[in-house]
Design brief:
This protein has 301 residues and is α+β, with helices and mostly antiparallel strands. Helix content is 28%, strand content 26%. Helix 1 packs across helix 8. The longest helix is centred in the C-terminal third of the chain and has 16 residues.
């Protein structure tokens, strides 16, 4: 039996029927493992040692770090506290990896697979980019999740400048601007990677009245298979994730282009299980059993 700690958002805010963290906790309990949960605010340091609820974090066999963004000062502090325990237990995902892998910017490590991308706070530059991208682009904040703050910006929209002012806080906050991919209407593919290998994929098809393909805003999950290019993408991204201690991640792929890498709280386990009839949450727990059971950890440098 393993002792597992899940650091998550308040359980009252999670939907048991859809949430991947709850799927993982339930799978671990079915296997007879002890499962504790805590919120980031409950992490403390006693001297140089990380503790939670009166227990050293290093006494757990494995810790799942899965609160949703924003990746703000509280999230940053949580990774710094967990840093004190990373040599004593398996942490999914490694706090150093999470700290260094902004979910919108990590994809820039794989230039051959991403759409045209610009990161800037300049409204004038964003308007120039919009022209270069044939009058259509997606603008995203750097620190949020679930499609929050994502804008589909068009040059022929009279609100364009106002939208860019809002997105950048009047030119004070950097945003990501990416080429609008028309394949997005057919769906945004979520590929789950476990230890650098594809665990499965679902296609999230947006509703007719919505640009975003996030499930919580009404997207429809469909079965998905990986193309040859997506398999090549997974091999390249998976190798880098493994090196960075990002053991369980979600890739967002539109038209065979990588748009984001979710390293904080990748979702899709419930939908993948329903569509494929397998047990992806169980596969994650099986992997943790193999990695943490003997406390033989390959820690990221």
């Amino acid at each position: 039996m393993l002792d597992l700690l899940f650091i998550v958002d308040p359980l009252s805010q999670l939907d048991p029927a859809r949430d991947s963290s709850i799927a993982l906790m339930q799978s671990a309990r079915r296997r007879g493992h002890r499962v504790d949960d805590a919120e980031m605010s409950e992490l403390t340091l006693r001297g140089a040692d990380a503790w939670v609820r009166g227990r050293p974090i290093g006494s757990y066999d494995a810790v799942f770090l899965r609160p949703d963004p924003p990746f703000d000062s509280h999230y940053l502090t949580a990774t710094l506290i967990l840093e004190r325990a990373r040599e004593h237990c398996l942490i999914v995902n490694d706090p150093r990896g999470v700290r260094n892998a902004n979910e919108k910017l990590y994809a820039l490590n794989f230039a051959d697979f991403i759409p045209t991308t610009r990161v800037t706070s300049s409204i004038a530059e964003l308007r120039e980019v919009l022209v270069d991208l044939d009058g259509e682009m997606i603008v995203k904040p750097l620190d949020r999740c679930g499609g929050s703050g994502v804008l589909h910006v068009r040059a022929d929209d009279r609100n364009t400048r106002a939208l860019l002012e809002m997105a950048t806080c009047d030119g004070r906050r950097p945003v990501v601007a990416q080429r609008y991919l028309r394949e997005a209407r057919r769906g945004d593919k979520r590929i789950l990677l476990l230890d650098g290998e594809p665990l499965g994929a679902i296609l999230r098809v947006p509703p007719d009245d919505e640009t975003r393909a996030n499930l919580h805003v009404g997207a429809r999950p469909e079965r998905a298979v990986l193309t040859a290019r997506e398999q090549a993408l997974c091999a390249v991204v998976g190798e880098r994730c493994r090196r960075d201690g990002l053991w369980f991640v979600g890739l967002d792929v539109i038209g065979e282009h990588l748009t984001e890498v979710n390293v904080t709280s990748p979702t899709g386990l419930r939908e993948l299980a329903a569509l494929d009839g397998g047990d992806p949450a169980g596969a994650v727990v099986d992997w943790v059993e193999r990695r943490a059971g003997g406390r033989t950890l390959d820690l990221a440098a």
